[in-house]
C-alpha cells in the first residue's frame, strides 16, 4: 500500500479531519492553513510517545490513539487555550490495516471529544513512535503561563491525583484486577480527559497554571521556578480518588499523587477571592496549599511541619509535558 | 543529565530560539504562543526523518540538523508563507553531548538563515529520529496550494533538478569523489536552500505550487490531481546542473531530475504573462512544460511525442513532503 493511500485511508476520514473552528485548509497540501480570529494567539505544543519508553510495545492501538491525543491536548488546557487542530507523525514498523484502523478510531474518538481536527502529518517506516503537535487559540495576553504566581495565592488542583501512576501496575500486566476500582484507574490512564473548560474558565483568574504530567511536586517546581516563589503543599489536602485509596495503602496512594505523574489534571495558583466562582462550576477543584515568598516546593504535614518528599516524578529521558 | 537540562543546554540557546517575527512566548511553558498579524493565516507542516530510512545512522549531526530543518521549511516556501517558528521532537538512543552540540549548531545555522525560531519540543530516549513541525504566516487567501492550475498556464521549476538524487551514491559512501562537482551535489543534498523568497514572490501570480521532494513527475502528479488538469513536461527543458551532467551520463542525470526526489525546489504553474517579472528576479526559473485540459502527467520528447517516464519517485513508506 502506498504511503498516500495509507494516510488517506485511515486519517483523512471526515470524522477526524473536521474539528476545531479555524481550519482553513486541512490534509493534502504542502501545509495546512489555520485562520484565527484577529488578536488571538496560537498555542503550540509537541509531544513524542515512544514504544517501550512511554507505552508497552503491545499496547492496544485504540487506547494508544486515545491517550496520545489526550496527553497533548492537556497542554492546551494548561494554557487556557481552545483546541483547533493537530498534526500526527507516525512511525510504524509495518503498515497493518487492523492496527491502523483501531489506532485511528481511538485517536478520532478523542479528537471529536475535544473538538480538534487532524490537519496533517507524516507516516514513516521505523520503530513505533508518535509525535503529535497540537494547536489552540487564546485571546492575546490571556494565556495561562507558569510565571505569574504571587505570594498569597492559593495552590489548587483540578481533581484527584495519582490515578495514572496507580494504574501502571495494571497497564504493565504486573497486577491482574477486574474490579470496578481497577477499571476506573485504567480508564484514567488510557483516556485522561484534558481539562479544557476549566483551563479556559481560569483565564483572567489563575496567576499560573500547568498540567501535571511529571508528578505534582515536580510540576509545582516548574511554577515555583518560573514565578520565583515558594509553593507550600499540604499533604493531607491532596485529593485522592476512592478507587486509588481502595486498591492501595494510604501511603502508596499519596506517593502516587505527589510523585507519580501521568495525571493530566491542571495545577494552578489563584487569588483567594476567585476560588468560590471556580468551585461553583468545578466542585472537584481542591485547594492543596499556598504561595509564599521564597523558592522551591515544600511538603507540609497537618501540623505545618515540613515532610521529606517521596522520590521525584518519573524523570525519563524526555518529558511528555515539556 | 536530566531532560530539562538537556533541552536547555542545547536548544534554548538564544541563537536558535530567536527568529521569526511573531513569537510571543518561546520554549519553557506548556505551550509556545505565536501572534500573527490580524488576517494572516498560519501555515503548518510536519515531517519525520528516521535513521536508516531517511538518513544514514552515522550521518554527520551538523549536516543532519541543517538538512532536517531545510526540508521542513521548504514546505512553507511551497505555500508562499514567511517562516515564523518550529518545534523539534528528537528521539535519541543516548544523550551524547558532542552529537547534540553539533546537531544543534547545524539546526540553528539553518534556522538563522531562514529567520525561523525554535519554540518548543520534546527529547526522548529511543531509536534515532526527528520530527519537525514548522509554522509560517501568509495573508489570508494568498497561500499557494496545489489546486489552482489552469489550462494554458506554464509549468515552471525554481532551478536545476536532480542534484539531491545524484548526491545519494556519495552520501551513502558507495562512491568516493572529492571533485568540486561532487562537493556541489553534497552541498545541495545536505543544505538545500528553501526557496522562501521565490515562494512569497509567487503569491497572487502562481496558480499552483509545491516543493519537489518525491521527484518532479510524482510531484507534478499531485498538482494534476488537485487541479484536475494534465501537466505536459518537456524532457529537454528540465534544467540540470553542470555538476550533475559532469559526473553522470545525460540519461542518468535526467532520470535523477525526473524521478529522483530530494530537490526542494519549487514547481509551480503560472500564467504566461507573469513569467517575465519572475524571471527578472529569478533568472534560474525555468519553463519546463504547460498545463492542458485532461489529467495526469505526460513526459514529452523534443518532437512532442510522449515518452515512457522513468521509474516513479522514491516511494518510501512515508513521505517527507506529505
Automatic annotation (TrEMBL), chains A, B:
Mg(2+) 3 binds at residues 30, 75, 211. Keywords: ATP-binding, Kinase, Magnesium, Metal-binding, Nucleotide-binding, Thiamine biosynthesis, Transferase. Pathway: Cofactor biosynthesis; thiamine diphosphate biosynthesis; thiamine diphosphate from thiamine phosphate: step 1/1. Mg(2+) 5 binds at residue 214. Gene3D superfamilies: PurM-like C-terminal domain, PurM-like, N-terminal domain. It comes from the Bacteria. It is an enzyme of class 2 (transferase). Its EC number is 2.7.4.16. Substrate binds at residues 54, 262, 314. InterPro entries: PurM-like_C_dom, PurM-like_C_sf, PurM-like_N, PurM-like_N_sf, ThiL-like. HAMAP family: TMP_kinase. Belongs to the thiamine-monophosphate kinase family. Catalyzes the ATP-dependent phosphorylation of thiamine-monophosphate (TMP) to form thiamine-pyrophosphate (TPP), the active form of vitamin B1. This is Thiamine-monophosphate kinase. The lineage of its organism: Bacteria, Pseudomonadati, Pseudomonadota, Gammaproteobacteria, Pseudomonadales.
Amino acid at each position: 500500500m502506498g504511503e498516500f493511500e495509507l494516510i488517506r485511508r485511515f486519517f483523512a476520514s471526515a470524522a477526524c479531519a473536521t474539528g476545531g473552528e479555524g481550519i482553513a485548509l486541512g490534509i493534502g497540501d504542502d501545509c495546512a492553513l489555520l485562520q484565527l480570529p484577529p488578536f488571538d494567539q496560537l498555542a503550540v505544543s509537541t509531544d513524542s510517545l515512544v514504544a517501550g519508553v512511554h507505552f508497552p510495545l503491545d499496547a492496544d492501538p485504540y487506547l494508544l490513539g486515545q491517550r496520545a491525543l489526550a496527553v497533548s491536548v492537556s497542554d492546551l488546557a494548561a494554557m487556557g487555550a481552545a483546541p483547533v487542530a493537530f498534526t500526527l507523525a507516525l512511525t510504524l514498523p509495518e503498515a497493518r490495516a487492523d492496527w491502523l484502523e483501531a489506532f485511528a478510531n481511538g485517536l478520532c474518538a478523542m479528537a471529536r471529544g475535544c473538538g480538534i481536527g487532524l490537519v496533517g502529518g507524516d507516516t514513516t517506516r521505523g520503530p513505533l513512535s508518535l509525535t503529535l503537535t497540537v494547536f489552540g487559540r487564546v485571546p492575546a495576553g490571556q494565556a495561562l503561563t507558569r510565571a505569574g504566581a504571587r505570594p498569597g495565592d492559593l495552590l489548587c488542583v483540578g481533581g484527584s491525583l495519582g490515578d495514572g501512576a496507580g494504574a501502571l501496575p495494571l497497564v504493565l500486566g504486573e497486577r491482574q484486577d477486574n474490579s470496578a476500582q481497577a477499571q476506573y484507574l485504567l480508564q484514567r490512564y488510557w483516556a485522561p480527559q484534558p481539562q479544557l473548560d476549566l483551563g479556559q474558565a481560569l483565564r483572567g483568574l489563575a496567576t499560573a497554571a500547568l498540567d501535571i504530567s511529571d508528578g505534582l511536586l515536580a510540576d509545582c517546581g516548574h511554577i515555583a521556578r518560573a514565578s520565583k516563589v515558594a509553593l507550600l503543599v499540604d499533604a493531607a489536602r491532596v485529593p485522592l480518588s476512592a478507587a486509588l485509596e481502595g486498591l492501595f495503602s494510604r501511603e502508596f496512594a499519596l506517593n502516587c499523587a505527589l510523585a507519580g505523574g501521568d495525571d493530566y489534571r491542571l495545577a494552578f495558583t489563584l487569588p483567594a477571592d476567585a476560588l468560590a466562582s471556580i468551585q461553583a462550576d468545578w466542585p472537584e477543584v481542591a485547594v492543596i496549599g499556598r504561595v509564599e515568598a521564597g523558592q522551591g516546593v515544600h511538603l507540609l504535614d497537618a501540623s505545618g511541619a515540613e515532610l521529606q518528599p517521596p522520590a521525584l516524578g518519573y524523570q525519563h529521558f524526555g518529558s511528555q509535558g515539556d
